[in-house]
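### Sample
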Amino acid sequence: MVNNKKSLAIIFGIVLLGLVLLFLYDREESIEEPVIPHKEIASNEVVNVKMTIGFQDGPTWKWKNVTLSELEVNEILSWFNSVPENEITEVENYTSALVAGIGIELKSNYEIRIQYDQKNVYVTRNDVKSGNALTKYILNGSELNDFFDKKMNRSK
């Protein structure tokens, strides 16, 4: 009888220890902060910045390269880096009709694409991973919207 009580106490202790460990494991996961897809671009990491704008040429859609000044590149980086977290909306995909884009090549061989559809500014980046997929998000209320609109009006 004493042996049964000891066995029962040992089993009870093991089950209790398991529950405590399970509780702590779940708690650690919930404490982890979510990955924020938007991180700043250091200007000394930038190798090249290219901009293209789409335009209608009769019945066809064409793309043309737009030269950016050093001041414009610095403004783009500044605006991009100043977007607060609450102005970012993660998306899995976007199927919008894009009309302009900026490609930023980094020294680390990563690329950040900032694209525009005359309403939203979309970002696709391969330097911040969301699993194995590219990270995609929308910058809400960004000064980049105005920049794209001005560039598109000048290129007509």
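DSSP finds three helices and seven strands in the chain. This sample (DUF4340 domain-containing protein) is used throughout the tutorial notebook.
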